[in-house]
Amino acid sequence: MAETVLDVEALSVTLDTPSGPLAAVHHVSFALERGQSLGIVGESGSGKSMTALALMNLLPRSATRQATRLRLLDHDLTALPDRRFAQDLAGQRIGMIFQEPMTSLNPVYTIGRQLTEGVVRTGQMDAAAARRRALEMMARVGLPDPATRFDQYPHQFSGGQRQRVMIAMALMAEPDVIIADEPTTALDVTVQAQILRLMADLQRDLGMAMILITHDLGVVAQTVDRVAVMYAGEFVETGQVAQVLGAPRHPYTAALLHAAPEPDGARHRLAAIPGQIRPVYGQRSACVFENRCAHATPDCRAGHPGLRAAAPGHAYRCVLPPQPRPAAVQPQPTGQPRDVGSAPPVISLTGVSRVFASRATPFHRPHSLRAVDRVDLDVLPGETFALVGESGSGKSTLARMLLGLDTPSEGEIRIDGQPVSALQGVDRARRIQPVFQDPYSSLNPRRRIGEIIAQPMALHGLGSAAERSQAVEEVMARVGLPEAFRHNYPNQLSGGQRQRVAIARALILRPEILVCDEPTSALDVSVQAQILNLLADLKAEIGLTLFLITHDIGVVHQIADRVAVMQAGRIVERGPAARVLHSPAEAYTRTLLAAVPSIARALATGAQERGQPDGH
Amino acid sequence: MTPPTVQTAPAADMPDRAPTPREILRRRALRHRGFQIGLSILVGLLVVALFAPLLAPHDPFAQTLSARMLPPVWADGGRWDYPLGTDQVGRDYLSRLIYGARVSLLVGFGAATIGMVIGVTLGVLAGYFGGAVDHAVNFVLTAQLALPGLLLAMALVFIIGPSVWVVIGIVGVLHWTYYLVVTRSATMRLREIEFVAAAKALGASRRQVLIGEILPNLVPQILVIFTFELGVAILAESALSFLGVGIQPPTPSWGLMIAEGKEVMFFRPWQVVLPGIAIFLLVVGANLTGDGLRDITAPEGRT
Description:
The structure holds 2 protein chains of 2 kinds. Chain A is of the alpha/beta class. Chain A is 33% helix and 23% strand.
């Protein structure tokens, strides 16, 4: 049996908040052996990042850490002073990779300096040895031409390359444990796939233990051996990946799996988890998931459930008998492409390009960038048209032009047969409306919800006060917002609720088309399901045309009728969603699809790999 | 099992009700001692200025030549009918200080408001439109920063001729740079946030975007600068009056009172000390209020 490098028992983190002590992490226990990897999955607010910060001694000032046991190799971390931890262990025996590669590197120092700084300062290596090691690690993480890039600055690296640098930096001192907190969330899928493969390889080759923290079940399924599902600060289910994701025992795990749109398999209506995480103050006297659980009984409130074993190594916290797995596949009423053949297109683009040019100055030659390159496109009334592409492919520029926020350099965009440039103000707003990615920034924080939703009418002086109020009430009911929210401010609502507000604001003028730019990528899986279901319902009930921009193939699979794939400003492939996703014609589309983490695929290959030694 | 419908999906129960922005401000204000002290001083002096005719024991212009240079009541020879003594021509010092608060606050609020209108307008325009507008505004800013403020103010008053309104106008016109710098960068940040794009997509005009979307989000920063500029303007008025190019006698102004008292400073120090304390109190009050507002409206509540 391999050596245990990290042993955690009953780790708790308590935050001191104005409403009382909040248990952000509650009695978390696990042990990691050399070469093992553990995935911690949870939605925002589940406490997964707090767990990582607690292990790294990086907790905010208002937080206190408690544990009955916290051992890293033969060091007792509960008794170790912070200074000793920083000197002897941080970065050397335990390393961390952060989410944001764009901001985790200091822009004023060279990559080389940042790579070698840690090991030189702690006296593990002299400068020459550190340089050799850094060049070696840069090559190992797949950065081409290490010798040249060693002296370059962070801005000369792409996002994926910076994350490779971060990984190389974490590996400089050959730590025994590495913690990666959402290491690929900020990256494109194709880059994410490379980084995940790299991390899995490195972890295996170097025999490190790894903790991977993510909200993405697909990422976990494909990268780690064991998984812990975290909810409201506690591990509600732990076990081997195949056990937890293949045969979940906790209702929350099952609900999460059911809420995630899978790029493979048949389309079905997503089962959203109602409500949101409820913070737990003080003692835990009931199941933490009880208020959102579809199977909750009075027993769930009788006490805080202990861990139950489902199989060797597979434990969960639920008092209920195992649930029969719900019938997952249900035909979606609006999923099939509509027969719209003869209707004229509502949006039509002919030869649309957008060129961004920089002006010539004494120091720079002018250069230009074709963000959108001769795009022809028709969107038919009542359909959901998805534009898929990675960051920088030009899809958001295209959306801005549709909304009249930007004008094409060449070509023409027509909406309802009229050029967008000829449509002004209320005319345009009544035809086409946006729903933006981030509901935290798309609502003015200084206005009440009722005002935000009524704003389109107020801007154009439509209706009397009573009529506006009536319209707000109707549209709030349509998007499933309680009327009581009218007098609240955006900061009082959750992410999913805010996105509903944004949709309500877009709908109040009864437009024909909604342009949704990554409408769910800032939301948790369970909330994403609510919003996707809402969009599907709106389309079915009021015949909206949806123009969806996304990088998420699962979302496309879930609601799109037709798809266009965009790369470097051009549309490389288009067609009915089912055809493009299942039998892509272009190499780029195939790469994109193969890079999408899929739980089903990962479990299938995992079972094969595991099955082989026995079978042969 | 039937999948939950959309209508039941959102939290029908209110979320753990997060406080409204206003409630957060109120809560932080109640915990901020400096803000409370500063605001009390400011409000106190404002009340004094407003009700000066009721509070002042004497007419501030009435000269009683038989009672010249009386010391305050606590010193030898002080009299209760002139609690803070009298000046060289026998005017009641307390009454003059009370009326002086009117001049100081009038100049302070007036000048800070003029500066605000100029600075915020230029800052929002430069930040929102960028490009040529920004270049032009930056040129004006650089030019203004290169000018020696007090000297220019003196020269201007000298040319135009001194009066309260001229002092307000000139001090205001010379103190808008902070407003500009802060609102310009805040507007550049706000311009990129999606609620602005959302408003534009709704067909909002430029004016509607600037006034309805951008400006309300600048209010906290503007308020903070306003209180600081209040202090600066009050000091500028005192300085101008002290130098003889500000408020003209016999109008009671604290700066002017110091100037008038300076000849007898070594024999009658209270004639300089008392208006000095008044100026100090008002400026400290304004600055404490500004400091407090900055903390209270900061995104992460520092207390």
